[in-house]
Amino acid sequence: MNNTSITKSSTSISELSKTALVASLYVVVTVFLAVISFGAIQLRLSEMLNYLALYHKRYVIGVTVGVIIANLPHPLGS
């Protein structure tokens, strides 16, 4: 096995873990602050993670997955 293959593999694992970290951070912040995150007037502090997309495109996927997971238990799915 050559070094190039190992480097590409570790890079993709690193990118996947960073994306998963952003998604889990979004879910944790949204659920922890559920009192203000769900309701008629919503204040989602986790939306500040959207600005990570300015740094790298992979964070768009992380935030999108985080939004989907955070909205699953909510009855209105907002």
From TrEMBL:
Keyword check for Transmembrane: yes
Organism: Kurthia gibsonii
Keywords tagged on the record: Membrane, Transmembrane, Transmembrane helix
UniProt feature coiled coil, ranges: none
The protein, known as: QueT transporter family protein
The organism's place on the tree of life at top rank: Bacteria
InterPro entries, alphabetized: QueT
Entry annotated with the keyword Transmembrane: yes
Membrane-spanning residues: 20-38, 59-76
